[in-house]
Amino acid sequence: MAGRRDAADGVKELDTAFAEAVRGTGASVGALFLLAADEQVLCLEALCGAPAEFAAPWVRVPVATPAPVSVAVREERLVWVGSQEEMSRTYPRTAMVLPYPLALVAAPVTGVRRWGVLLLMWPATRPPYMTGRERGNIASSCLRLARLLEDAEQTGRCRAAGDRPRVVPAGTGRRSTSPAMAAADFVERLPGGSCALDLEGRLTYVSDGAEELLGADAGQLLGTVPWQSLRWLDDPAYEDRYRAAVLTREPVSFTACRPPGRWLDIHLYPDASGISVRIVPTGARPPPAPAPRHPARPATPARAGHLYQLTHLAAGLTEVVGVQDVIALVADQIMPAFGAQGLVLSTAEAGRLRITGYRGYSAAVVERLDGLPIDTGLTPAGSALTSGIPAFFGDPEEMRRVHPEAQPISGKQAWAFLPLIVSGRPVGICVLSYDQPHTFPAEERAVMTSLAGLIAQALDRARLYDTKHDLAHGLQQALLPRTLPAVDGLRVAARYLPATWGMDIGGDFYDLIRLGDTDAAAVIGDVQGHNVAAAALMGQVRTGVHAHATLGATPDQVLRGTNRLLTDLAPDLFTSCLYAHLDFARRRVTLASAGHPPPLRRLSGRDASPVEVPPGPLLGIDPDAEFPVTEIPFPPGLMLAFYTDGLIERPGVDLDDSIAGLTRHLAAADDRDLDVLADTLLRQCGSAAQRTDDIALLVLHDRLAGAGTEPG
């Protein structure tokens, strides 16, 4: 009991601080996102100023997506969007599900570690910029939230995460808990009375005049949502006006026709406690629309919230890359959107259903279902895929009536079998399942069926991508050195990290070449691009450098020979390269560069600095290019770090500043274990974040180090 009480107290403190952050900044809507345990997904923890339904597309936001909250936690910086135009330009996917005039800020909640993001939204009437004081207030609020989360973790008061985010009252105004109080709020907001809505869209007050205009008694309307209790308002366009009023806090008006022909002007006046609605007969009747030649079949329009959610999910499916990305998006966003507890995604291969991903099932159940023939009677999946017609079963009895051979293997109580078809060709099937019986209304079936087509397209693209990726990755791994040769008197550590965007491959390479008993060469390079062509050219460059080096060429001759090879091949891709010749007998290092970032050197006293190497042009441009040579001493204990630009290039950061930062990290690093040192450099330079470029790092350390250094 005490543990539950402590957890509840922790949640209450967090919600209070969150509400104060929203109220103190004057925001109309706030949201608190917390990182999941794997730090790959942001989960919506609390919402203020809007109903939970509005946040359905953002209950789980992958950190890798291009959204303000993702960028804020990924790059650990405040993200400000001052207008709808800026939103459309910078975050088009977010703009599709927030098509309203508003401003927002996403601020990272960070303390001893990353916790999540605080999202705040304002009406577009506020100035399109932030003052230093506002930024300071937001930063203070985020720090307070981080401290509360840290205290809760240290004291064992774990937060109680639910399936839905907590809706936290802002603490401003009076909450309308009865028709009398709702009427009082309404009188304060408007000179006349008609009706009032809470932020969830439910009617809390209906005047006598509103009863007459709406054609319904207050007793029938109170507590209901008007676009559900009044059929003539059952149109997503009308619901969208309500959503706009809640999110923008700006008055909204529209005209609707109450059958048989009474036109009404409806005005919405929102604030933090609800919406006052004024309804008046319209001044002029719109011209009648021509009657259709054939009576249209009645259809249930989709809810505006579902339409926005479908748009959001569709945009997400266009951005996924591999098959596992498709599975993750379906599991993280589509399953919660429909309240499903189970997922099985299967592909059709050689007449069988191969399960490529699942959630909410035991491994034993998946093993039994994996590899079943498409014509199996054990599950309706095969027949749904063969016919191309989705199948919905609200309970086990309905399943038995239609498919008597189907067996209760998983213990699920309701299923949606969605065939994945691309241009008439079956790709696979997506099964959403429920732990309890579930009703599938026509609207939900229509949305699920539409999404199945988008999932099919995404899955088909993803399978092709994975095939190309496996080919390119295998090529790259074959061309990179599996191990580096042992060189007497030298410790070596090397790392390669592919880009996290694109095909996870690139043209960065490194090598260490033994030239004799007292000589060795180190080389690092970067071929333009992140595809199969880049990986293939990387292998040619590395081979060319190795061939010229083993013939005894000097560094400038090695680069000249490799440059002529590339210009003859005319690959339309350019390459930067740095070559260093290490002479252990003369204790000298000779270097030549083809447009590559300068190496770093660290002496035994931890004095680190970049080596000034005048660069020649990139390889593959000018067949007659010359490459200047630089010679530096090779004192005992010397450490050299070679790297590619993926380690130092950051948006908005000057390149010289990045090199200076890397130099400081190298100077401060512990050199007793060179592998640990290499990993430290990668981590301190932000390689754990999303990378748009691949990274290569090669560190060499002379074994004749000073005191306190242990040879590895």
Search tags:
alpha+beta; 712 residues
- Give the strand tally: 29
Query: What is the percentage of strand-forming residues?
Result: 25-35%
Overall pLDDT score: 82
* Unreliable spans: 172-176, 284-302, 706-712
Instruction: Please compute the radius of gyration using only Cα atoms.
Output: 32 Å
How far is it from the N-terminal to the C-terminal residue, by CA? 55 Å
Number of contiguous helices: 20
What structural class results from the helix and strand content? alpha+beta
- Overall 3D form: globular
Largest sheet: 7 strands, mixed
Q: Work out the helicity level.
A: 25-40%
Oligomerization status of the protein chains:
single chain
Give a short summary of the structure.
The chain has 712 residues and is an alpha+beta fold. Helices cover 36% and strands 25% of the residues.
Word description of this protein:
With 712 residues, this protein is of the alpha+beta class. Strands 1, 2, 3, 4, 5, 6 and 7 form a seven-stranded mixed sheet that branches. Strands 15-14-13-18-17-16 form a six-stranded antiparallel sheet, with helices on both faces. Strands 20, 21, 22, 23, 26 and 27 form a six-stranded mixed sheet that branches. Helix 1 (2-24) packs antiparallel against helix 5 (132-154), helix 11 packs antiparallel against helix 12 and helix 11 (304-319) packs parallel to helix 16. It is globular, with a radius of gyration of 32 Å.
